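Problem 12. The chain below contains 242 residues. Write out its predicted structure in token notation.
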Amino acid sequence: MQLQGSHWSSAVASADGAGGRNTPLRVDAQRNLEHVLRAAREVFGELGYGAPMEDVARRARVGVGTVYRRFPSKDVLVRRIAEEETARLTDQARAALGQENEPWSALARFLRTSVASGAGRLLPPQVLRVGVEVESDVRVPQQRQVGLADPPQPELRLVEQPSPVVPGGPDDAGAAALLEVVGQLVDRAREAGELRPDVTVADVLLVIATAAPSLPDAVQQAAASARLLDILLDGLRSRPAG
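Solution.
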């Protein structure tokens, strides 16, 4: 039976009398919470936010009921992870902005620390799509000319699909804070002539997500991330005219 609020406190107090069991229970609950959050980051980072709660419970080595006691629905857990990772990226961007004088060094530092932390694997799609305009009426060229004996061919159109949304994704304030500070990094590097003029905030966030592969071997993963990020950083830099 799930006990909440004052009922939980009363049950604990009555069970231990002098309160000797009160602290161990709180420590155990905190430990379980940390296990669940760590497992959720790993599972969602490897399989995406569509991974079931049972996978999180198995990775945390707790029963699925323990996960649901802490997070009554998957949406609540997803929101917690997405908000934590969005806040972590925001802090990393602010640190780079405040501690690096050179615009390109600041942007590169943010990208390297973010990729190394693995936060890119946990960015929700709606954050990655910010600033991306989707053309909803794109005409597809005919693949062949229509002959005289051929019946008229219907005009093909690309139908815009709805943006993928992570249930319970980060709140608007958290996402806005991330976009605002990353925008400052992008603007500084662009104004200094070190960043390609067509690079957007969405591009930078996409680099973070792309350069954070999930590989079974930690050494291989770190090497692959560093190599891929070097290539992507080279692509972001502006080239001298001529």
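Discussion. Strands lie at 138-139, 157-158. Students who got a different answer should revisit the alignment rule from Section 12.3.
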